[in-house]
Amino acid sequence: MSPARPDAEGAGGPLLRLAAPELDDLLRLVLRRAPGAEWATFARFGWRETARGLVLTLAALDPPEPGDLDEGIRDIKIAAPYLRRIALAAESHPLAVGLVHSHPDEAAPRPSALDDEMDAYLAAYVADFAPGRPFASLILSRVEGEIALSGRVFLNGSWHGIERVSAERRPDIRAWPGGERPAPAPMPPERVARLTSAFGREAYQRLQRSTVALIGAGGTGSAAIPILARAGVGRLIVVDADHASESNLERLHGSTPGDAADAVPKVAIARRHVASMAPDVTVEAWFGRLPQPEILDAVLQADVLMGCTDQHSSRLAVADVAARYALPAIDCGGLIEGRDGVVTGQIIQLVRFLAADPCPACRGMISTVRLRQELLSPEERLTAAQQAAEAIARGERPDPIATAIPQIDTVGYITTTAGTLAAGYVVGWLTGRFDPRFERLQLDLVAESLGAVDRPQRWRPDCACGRVRGQADQAIDPPPVQPPPHWPEPRRLA
C-alpha cells in the first residue's frame, strides 16, 4: 500500500481544523529542532464525514517520551515502544490516530520517498488496532514567515489529500495540497483600496480565500453580511429558517416591502443583497437551522462562525460547534430595557466562543425555560398558551413553560451596530491584523462611556463543553441541542 500523491486541487479533499491550545503545543513540539532538523509526534483527531468530504479536528497530542524518536539523526525514526504505546492508548479512545512531523525551515512540506514508506507502514499498522478510523499524516514547515502544512488521510482503503486548513485565529497557517505551494492570490480590486491601505494587500488575500458562516440573516445577520462582502470575504454561508415580514423591514438590510408581501426567505434577500454590491462573493444560502445535520455539514466548511439569532437554542448550538469542531465563533445580539415608558438601557452583547472558551450554560446565559419554549412546535405553543390562560383564569400561576416566548424588543440601529461590530472582529481574525480583547463584551448605548464591560467567565466543572473539545462526532457527550422533529427539512436555495 503506497500513498498516492494527491492532486493540488482535487475535489472533496479533507478539511483540517486546528484550535489552540492544541495547535500552540503542536507547533512548539514539532518545530523544536528547527531550522535544520525534523521532529514528530502522534496525535488524536475527531472527524466527521460529510457530503463535501472529511472534516478532521485536532483533539490531543500523544508526544514522544525520551528515546521514542532518534535525536541523533536529522529526519524521523520512530522506536517500537512509541508505536506500541499509541496502539494501547487507541484501545481506550474512539479518536483517529495521526502522525505530525516537521520539515526544515524553508523546505516545502512535500512528502519524501521515506515519508511515503513510513505512511504506508503506519496506515496498515493503525488499521490493525483502530479499524474503520482514519489515519492522518501531516507535514509542516516554516516558509517565508508562514506555516506551510500538507497532509493526507487514509480512510476506507484509499488516501485523500488535505485541501484546506482552518486554524483558529491563525491565517498564517496555509494548506499546501500535495506539498505544493498554492497558486498566487489575486491582486486586490480598487473597491477595497482603503482596506488594503490600512491592513495591507495580504489581508485582502486572506479574506478572499476565507469562508464565514452566519446563523441568522435577520437584523444582526443582515448588517454583518454586507460588511463581510464589501471587505472581500470570498464565500458566505448564510442560514435562516424565516421569511421576511412587515415587522422585519425596519431592521432587515437589503429588504423591500415586496419581500414582506411575498414572504421571501431572509437568506434569499441576503444573497440578492450581496450580488448587488459584490458579485464576486459566493453566497451559499440555506433555509434551515443549526444543528440540523445538513446545516452542520455546511457551516463546518467555514473559517469563522457568527451567531446572529439571539436565541438560546442557537447560541448553545453555535458554542457547541465551536468547541466540538474547532470552529471559532462570535455570537451577537441586542436588547432594549425600559421602565414606566422610559428607555433605561440599549444593550449590545458580543460573546467569543473559541474551542477552549466556556459555553453559554457555563456563563449563565441560558434559561432552561426559554430553551424549552424555543423548541416547542406550533401546536405545543398553542396548547401551552391555552393552559396558561386557563391557569390565570383560575387565579393560579401558570407553568412558565406554558407562557408565550418573550419577544426581544430591539430596533434597527441596535441590531445594525451589533452585527457591524461583530463583522469587524471577524475581519480581524481572518486577516490576523487584530484580535478581540474580550470574552463577553456588553455595551449600553445610553450609559456613560457606553458602559463597556468584559465578563470573563470560567467552565463549570460538571459541564460537557470542557470534554468535547476537538472530538467532533466521536465525543461521548451528545450535543446540547437536538433538532426537534417538527423542524422542516433544511434545503439549499438553488
TrEMBL record:
State a single Gene Ontology molecular function: metal ion binding
> Where along the sequence do coiled-coil regions lie?
none
Q: Where is the composition biased (Pro residues)?
A: 477-487
Among InterPro entries, the record links this protein to: JAB_dom_prok, ThiF/MoeB/HesA, ThiF_NAD_FAD-bd, Ubiquitin-activating_enz
What range(s) does the JAB domain occupy?
83-135
Q: Tell me the GO BP annotations in alphabetical order.
A: cyclic threonylcarbamoyladenosine biosynthetic process; proteolysis
Q: Does the keyword Protease apply?
A: yes
Pfam family name, one: ThiF
Region described as Disordered: spans on this chain: 468-494
* Residue intervals of the THIF-type NAD/FAD binding fold domain: 197-446
What is the protein's species of origin?
Answer: Salinarimonas soli
**Keyword annotations from UniProtKB, A to Z:** Hydrolase, Metal-binding, Metalloprotease, Nucleotidyltransferase, Protease, Transferase, Zinc
Q: By its UniProt entry, which SUPFAM superfamilies does this protein fall under?
A: Activating enzymes of the ubiquitin-like proteins
This protein is called what? ThiF family adenylyltransferase
